[in-house]
């Protein structure tokens, strides 16, 4: 059984569907990339899995299983035992994600204390080990430092240390490098992948930068306007995208357009609360949309093993729509 | 931290000088002649008047009077009351203790109730409790102290007969001077009073504390609530939740600590305005503190008392703010580390 199984997960804020019936699985030790533009529901869907969506947000799902637990029916107390221990999450902006009033050491040791207990000395040793693990020099002294004394890259390393403090089986990294310098970005991703390999931890890497997950991820999930539009193994998706949206994302990357002619990237933005179109949500922006796309919503269907697409006219390997 | 303190003390001296000038000018701007007021209805001859003016040093030009006053201050001499001929400082201390006792107890009341109510209102945002807390604190904030004090006395003391009407202790209460009395009724009655004296002092303190504490209470409730609401939306709260921290711990540890930063500042600012409130409260409850003392002296144009009294009070407020700033540094690491 998969480590994480999500079926028809939906998150609504009033009438607005921030996440619209998404289903996917994460296996143990797997690296899954979730990509999509800003506002496509990547963060909200992950927060829903962590149980961090507050009223008035409404989470529904047909199934939400993690490591043998049913997250849908689990008690709040039992959820807290899992969250932070077996499944952990790091966030986009490390500078604001650490509590300014407490030392780095306190914030790491708190996670250990909640889930593992142990003596103060043991927790301290573990915290030093963790800081060492995430590549922070002079870890013993860094324990006493406050977050404002750290750079963005260092803060994100501390966030990672907190997240892996209890050896999670799944780590969700929500755009962990967006707020960081380009030079630091690579280091942080590398660190995450190192840790992932070392402990055979599953890693969900959320990003709007396809290039970031190109090499690292086993599986790619492409999201648009709260829906999954394409799922596939990383190599296959990069070679021949099935969905026009994936194609557009790829075309916006210089690395992938060398031998193909570069298409103009999609104009417009992700539909928000008031401008959700009929039919396929991409149709106002899709260069291939026809009448059917404007009226009938396509369903996410399997094309081959591990390969799903939500499009009436999935693209051929040459990159052309397959009108019947 | 040391540099921080040094800078704060540096500001203290000009502020201090400014206060002396202001009080001096204002006191002398008020029309009225202290000698004439002292003489009362009988009046007095012009010769005797001039003689008395010279005796009090009031015949000299104003600037010279000011410098004499200033020199006195730097020698630790705050002047002598025209009326009682007692040094201002000696008059000040026991009255200040009365005010301090009242102010502290009012502040304890305000903080003790204000912070939990504010936190609860924020956590239960939009609930009936929240709405009640907001509207009550708005009412409390705009309550005229004088009227509010009177109403409470009428209801609680006169009508329900639950607490005494005025004063610090009952007239019958006797404290033996041979004990090392502190001047704080709660302490004195607790250690050297007879049985029931302490309760008596507490009963006298309740209503004035509520009256004086009402505005700070309202301010603290609103500030705590809004600070908590803001903090609870911060990213680091989400991080704490993602760590599996319990809801209670998130509120009491992660959020409250951050929310206290603006609340402590507000508490400090309230100390100043509480002194104004103390004057009214002390009048309503015949509380023998500096509020009443200053008002009485002002009416008598007792220049030394008013000048030095205001100066001491102003200095105290500055010192309180200094302490608050230090507290602020303790709560907020970002301030502490700023060079
Ligand atoms: N608490 C909320 N209340 C109402 N709408 C929300 C709330 N949180 C998120 N949304 C909306 O849900 C949609 C999806 O947001 P989400 O943060 O998941 O996007 P994202 O894919 O993570 O984008 P980004 O790349 O900018 O992080 C957005 O339109 C956002 O405005
Ligand atoms: Mg996001």
Give the structure's gist in a few sentences.
Chain A has 324 residues and is an alpha/beta fold. Helices cover 32% and strands 22% of the residues of chain A. Chain A has two domains: 4-98 and 170-309, Rossmann fold (3-Layer(aba) Sandwich); 99-149, no CATH class.
Determine the structural class of chain A based on helices, strands and strand pairing: alpha/beta
Question: What fraction, in percent, of the residue positions of chain A are helical?
Answer: 25-40%
| CATH-assigned fold name of the domain at 100-298 in chain B | MetI-like fold
| CATH architectural arrangement of the largest domain in chain A | 3-Layer(aba) Sandwich
Question: What is the count of β-strands of chain A?
Answer: 13
The pLDDT mean of chain A sits at 89
Helix content of chain B: over 70%
What does the overall shape of chain B look like?
Answer: globular
CATH architecture type of the domain at 100-298 in chain B: Orthogonal Bundle
Major beta sheet summary of chain B: none
The total count of helices of chain A amounts to 12
**What is the class of the domain at 100-298 in chain B in the CATH system?**
Mainly Alpha
Shape call of chain A: globular
Mean pLDDT of chain B: 86
Tell me the domain tally of chain A.
2
- Enumerate the distinct ligands: adenosine-5'-triphosphate, magnesium ion
In what range is the share of β-strand residues of chain A? Answer: 15-25%
Domain ABC transporter (chain A): 4-250
Organism (chain A): Frischella japonica
EC number (chain A): 7.4.2.9
Keywords (chain A): ATP-binding, Cell membrane, Membrane, Nucleotide-binding, Transport
């Amino acid at each position: 059984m998969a480590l994480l199984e999500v079926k028809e997960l939906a998150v609504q804020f009033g009438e607005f569907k921030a996440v619209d019936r998404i289903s996917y699985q994460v296996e143990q030790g797997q690296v899954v990339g979730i990509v999509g533009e800003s506002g496509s529901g990547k963060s909200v869907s992950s927060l829903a899995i962590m149980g961090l969506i507050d009223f008035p947000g409404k989470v529904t799902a047909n199934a939400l299983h993690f490591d043998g637990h049913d997250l849908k029916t689990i008690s709040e107390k039992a959820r807290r035992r899992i969250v932070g221990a077996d499944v952990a999450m790091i966030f986009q902006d490390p500078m604001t994600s650490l509590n300014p009033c407490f030392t780095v050491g306190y914030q790491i040791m708190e996670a250990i204390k909640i889930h593992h207990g142990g003596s103060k000395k043991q927790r301290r040793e573990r915290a030093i080990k963790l800081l060492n693990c995430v590549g922070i020099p002079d870890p013993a002294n860094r324990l006493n430092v406050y977050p404002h004394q750290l750079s963005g890259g260092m803060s994100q390393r501390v966030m990672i240390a907190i997240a892996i403090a209890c050896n999670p089986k799944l780590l969700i990294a929500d755009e962990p490098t967006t707020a960081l310098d380009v030079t630091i970005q690579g280091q942080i991703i590398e660190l995450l992948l190192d840790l992932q390999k070392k402990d055979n931890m599953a890693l969900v890497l959320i990003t709007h930068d396809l290039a970031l997950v190109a090499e690292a991820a086993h599986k790619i999930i492409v999201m648009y306007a709260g829906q999954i539009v394409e799922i596939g193994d990383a190599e296959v998706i990069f070679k021949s995208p099935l969905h026009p949206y994936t194609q557009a994302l790829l075309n916006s990357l210089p690395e992938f357009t060398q031998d193909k002619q570069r298409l103009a990237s999609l104009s417009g933005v992700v539909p928000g609360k008031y401008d959700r179109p009929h039919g396929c949500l991409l149709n106002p922006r899709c260069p291939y949309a026809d009448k059917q796309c404007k009226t009938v919503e396509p369903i996410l269907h399997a094309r081959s093993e591990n390969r799903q697409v939500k499009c009436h006219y999935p693209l051929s390997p040459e990159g052309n729509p397959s009108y019947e | 931290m040391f540099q921080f303190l040094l800078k704060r003390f540096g500001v203290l001296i000009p502020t201090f000088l400014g206060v002396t000038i202001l009080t001096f000018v204002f006191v002398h701007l008020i029309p009225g002649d202290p000698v004439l007021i002292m003489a009362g209805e009988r009046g007095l001859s012009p010769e005797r008047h001039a003689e008395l003016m010279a005796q009090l040093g009031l015949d000299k030009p104003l600037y010279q009077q000011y410098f004499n006053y200033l020199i006195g201050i730097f020698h630790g001499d705050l002047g002598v009351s025209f009326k009682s001929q007692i040094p201002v400082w000696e008059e000040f201390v026991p009255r200040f203790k009365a005010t301090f006792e009242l102010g502290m107890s009012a502040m304890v009341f305000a903080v003790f109730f204000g912070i939990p109510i504010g936190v609860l209102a924020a956590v239960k945002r939009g609930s009936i409790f929240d709405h009640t807390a907001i509207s009550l604190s708005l009412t409390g904030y705009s309550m005229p102290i004088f009227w509010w004090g009177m109403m409470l006395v009428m209801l609680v003391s006169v009508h329900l007969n639950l607490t005494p009407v005025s004063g610090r202790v009952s007239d019958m209460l006797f404290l033996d001077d041979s004990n090392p009395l502190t001047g704080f009724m709660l302490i004195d009655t607790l250690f050297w009073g007879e049985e029931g004296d302490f309760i008596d002092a507490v009963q006298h303190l309740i209503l004035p504390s509520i009256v004086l504490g009402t505005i700070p209470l309202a301010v603290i409730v609103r500030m705590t609530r809004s600070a908590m609401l803001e903090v609870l939306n911060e990213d680091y709260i989400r991080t704490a939740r993602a760590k599996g921290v319990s809801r209670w711990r998130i509120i009491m540890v992660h959020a409250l600590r951050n929310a206290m930063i603006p609340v402590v500042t507000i508490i400090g600012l309230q100390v100043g305005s509480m002194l104004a409130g103390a004057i009214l409260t002390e009048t309503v409850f015949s509380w023998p503190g500096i509020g009443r003392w200053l008002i009485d002296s002002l009416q008598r144009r007792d220049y030394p008392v008013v000048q030095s009294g205001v100066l001491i009070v102003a200095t105290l407020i500055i010192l309180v703010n200094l302490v608050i700033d230090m507290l602020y540094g303790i709560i907020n690491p970002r301030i502490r580390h700023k060079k």
